[in-house]
Amino acid sequence: MTIFQDILAKISAYPTIIIHRHENPDPDAIGSQSGLANVIKNSFPDKKVYKVGGPIGDLDWIDTMDTIGDDIYQDALVIVCDTANTPRISDKRYDQGAYLIKIDHHPDDDHYGDLVYVNDDASSTSEIITQLVDASAGMLKLNTTAARQLYAGIVGDTGRFMYPSTSPETFRIAAELTSFDFALDKVSQHMSEVTLAQAKLQSFVYDHLQIDTNGTGLMVISRALLKEMGIADDQVNAVVSTPGHLKECLAWILVVEQLDGTYRVHFRSKGPVINELAKAHRGGGHPLASGARARDLGEVTTIYEALQQLVSTYKENEVKH
Known about the structure:
By secondary structure, this protein is an alpha/beta fold. The protein folds into 2 domains: 2-191, Alpha-Beta Complex (inorganic pyrophosphatase (n-terminal core)), CATH 3.90.1640.10; 196-320, Roll (Diaminopimelate Epimerase, Chain A, domain 1). It has 10 helices and 11 strands. The strands form 2 sheets. Strands 6-7-8-9-11-10 form a 6-stranded mixed sheet. A 5-stranded parallel sheet has the order 2-1-3-4-5, with helices on one face. A hairpin with a 3-residue loop joins β10 (284-285) and β11. α2 (27-43) packs antiparallel against α4 (144-157). The longest helix has 24 residues, at 297-320. 45% of the residues are buried.
């Protein structure tokens, strides 16, 4: 694949490489970022390779971030992993390097970078990074640490291989990564673990989820509730998929009040395509998993009503077919 060769040429050419990912990271953001960093370090011991983006909350079992000065960006190659649009890039210095590469599996709505590789059919950006290694003809070399991180990213973004984006290629790559000597059970354990406070919040979601007759769910989590339960912002992601365990819930938004009074809106779906709705509200993402922003509860209501219409139309079309 020509574009992979172009990416490999840039990696080979630059002595300093800085790798970014998106804010509020998930396992694929950290897995692809750190997996790529460790692959490059393993393959080019003399290169300086940094992972940036600030705190990562309870995902520090995958890796930790580096803190670097602005001067490091001079003449550096910058690679942004798993980030569809520039507002979501964690650490806004991503455009301060000499050359910028975007590697992602979200729809390419924001075509930023000097070199862009986007495959929205891939299960995860971690899958793409492994394909890049495989295409390098030995130039890039996996090691156990990178394999564990990339595997964690794939497991996270496929929902443990349950989501529709999981393909035969996903399983091939997973098999390749698991040939390295790391504890698969520990990865699964980390993915499944929640704190007692998070478990109580999950229970609260089950008790208070608003759901209509078509299976459209709404849950609003206030700052007051987070404070009462002792939940940090970076721990809320553990409950985003909670409504999906309910047979009655087809698509939902889980809405979290932010410190500035706005709301972060998490979209999830078992069928209806929701990313266009997310785009209409300063967001975007995958067809069945997206995020957006709402200025106030009035906009949250507008989003929910639009989601209800999407779900209703989806179910009507299903009946017709």
